[in-house]
Amino acid sequence: MGIWKRIGGGALLGLGGLLLNLAEVEILPGVHLLLGPWMVLMAAVLLGPAAGGVAGALSGVRTWWLWGHPWGWLNMALEGLFVGALRRRLMPISSDGLFWALSPAYFLLTYGFMAELPLEATVVSGVKQAVNGLLAALTVQVTLLVPGIRRRLGPWLPAPVAAISMGRAFALSFTLGAIIPMLVVGMVEGRARYDTAVRHVEEENLQVARAVVREIERRIEHSSHAVAQLSRLLGDRSRPQGALPNPAFLEDGLDSLVTYSPEVIYAYVGSPEGRALAFSPRSDAEGRVLAGSDFSDREYVRKVRQSRVPLISDVFLGRVGERAPLVATVGPIREGDRYLGYVLAALDLPKMRAYARAQTHTQKQRVRVLDARKRVVFDSQQESTGNVDSIEGSPLADALDKLGGAGASSYQQRPDSRLLIRTGSAHLFCVRRVEQVGWRVVVEQSAALLQHDVEQTYAGLLVTVGGAVAVTLIVSLLLVRTVLAPVRRVAEAALRLASGDRLARAEEATRDAPRELHELARTFDQMAAQLSRQMETIEAASREKDVFLSIASHELRTPLTAIKVQVALLRRSVGEEQSARVDLFDRQIDRLTRLVNQLLDASQLGSGKLPLQCTRIDLAEVARRVAEALVGASPRHTLQLEVSPLVGAFDEMRIEQVLHNLVANAIKYSPSGGVIEVRVRRLSEREAEIEVADRGIGLGAEDREQLFGRFERGERQEVANISGLGVGLYVSREIIRRHNGTISLRQREGGGAVATVVLPLER
């Protein structure tokens, strides 16, 4: 498959991985298991590094969007490229494990330095992605063990996957079978623990909110009652002209209100226009008299004019004493329908803040009281400032708008999509309303402790999975040893049987094995016994055939010799007109004699009898003599001879027989004629090479080894009408083997065949 087709296949698998990543599985809050790496590693294993890199780049687009930086995307592309590059050397799980072993430096550089994530988040990200990738590699490897998939993907399977052992297959399958239930159980348990912790936090927040609401209601009710009493008293004691009592009387009333109302820090009586007529206390910390202060710009001055009962103001910035946020109870002073002024009691917010702080269970628990306009009445974790704070536009305000009334929810204090585990910036809060004034009491806690719990749960899950994997590997190794030991004994018996030991049996060695394996061994023994009997029958028939061929060859040689002599005598007595016919008889007798000799040689080889008589001869001279004689007798062929003197220890008659067979075959299988090329050259100081080439019908894909068999001529239609017994190459190979050499056939470019003989010059 070309590189572009591989890249196209990787792109398709990458798109599939992208779709799988859209359906990420949340193992724990903020910890997701992505399914896309399975497709990425499948592309890498089957199609190579380029396809794996493309698949990782496409599948990792989801991680870029999910985490807000490109480093997870790049990491997935590099993983596909790395595993694909090592697919022909290592198993997928091994190459992926090596990749993750080298990844800490990458995470520190990208996540830690470039993305500026905390070290803890960087470590968690690296561990999470490593587990994700290794699980995907394990799943790919087990998927490629399925027989149906292996049949369909056979040409694309790399060698380590295609030649996987049964023991490793068992170990991988058992490991995956142990990990998946552990992940499911861990996911359910982790989610249950997290939900329990969240409910516990919400219950704590609700408990504090209820206490604070009750205290606020109590203080407001008490201050409203005190202000209402003083307002009625002043209204009843007003002068006939509608004027309020004298300042001394007003100050006495205000002093009583402040003294007997601990929730009030100061009070004053204001005129209808909003000017202070009397104050308690009389002056501020710097000694300035407070009576006469102008508060006409205050909103409560306008509102109280229309009211007949005390009202509670929204939070505002005080101007008396220390500038700080204030909330006041304001009651109208009336004489009938006539409005005479108002009484104001400023609530002691620091005391309320201290009470709320005392109710919290942890330092991270925070109480904020908000008025109707989302301005902060007081904050348990923040002292009074010179400003009135507002949460308008903050993540908490948005969360309150979504929640509506009272209840529990959460918000992200620092919405940061880069963080893998986001519970660290999450805040869980509970809201209770102060119905009298429309305030909301918000009690919240940071989820940092929950993040710690999540990390502990994830670490515990990984430890559990690691333990399960270790136990599974040990059990699988023991099981494999138990199962494969009998199989190995059967295999050893089969090897002994193949090497000629017909008494090789396996049943006794597998007596203690499981029933199925014992049945396998028994069946093997039955097969071995049957094969042994059949081999004995075949060998007996072969011996009888060899004896027949030997006897027939000897018997045929005697009349052939006599006929040869008679033809020689006949040549002397006939005229020139009959000489050509006598020569034809002589050639046919020579051909028949060679066939008989080949049959005799084949029978001798079958019985192991073909002695060599080596002398020092010149291979070039033998090749020249045989080639010129044979090609010279064929009018359609020409000889191209390339030889140089090459002396060695050979059986001259047998080497001549081999050359005769090869040259004769080149002529015979080139029926249309052409050049017969014969070359003899030195390969090295110790070896010689003989080549015989033609431009004939050539070889089929299955002919290279089949044609060296005894009585084998191939099954192609082109050789059906060409005569021959099919023993020439068989005898030639055995002769060359006895010379410690090799002989081979190969297809020639442009048509034809080449026979090559390599011989050592010395025995």
From TrEMBL:
Signal peptide: none annotated. GO terms for molecular function: phosphorelay sensor kinase activity. Keywords: Cell membrane, Kinase, Membrane, Phosphoprotein, Transferase, Transmembrane, Transmembrane helix, Two-component regulatory system. GO terms for cellular component: plasma membrane. It is found in: Cell membrane. The chain crosses the membrane at residues 35-58, 97-115, 130-149, 169-188, 458-480. SMART domains: HAMP, HATPase_c, HisKA. It catalyses: ATP + protein L-histidine = ADP + protein N-phospho-L-histidine. Its EC number is 2.7.13.3. Pfam families: dCache_1, HAMP, HATPase_c, HisKA. It comes from the Bacteria. Residues 551-763 form the Histidine kinase domain. It is a multi-pass membrane protein. PANTHER family: SENSOR HISTIDINE KINASE TRCS, SENSOR HISTIDINE KINASE YKOH. This is histidine kinase. It comes from Stigmatella aurantiaca (strain DW4/3-1). The lineage of its organism: Bacteria, Pseudomonadati, Myxococcota, Myxococcia, Myxococcales.
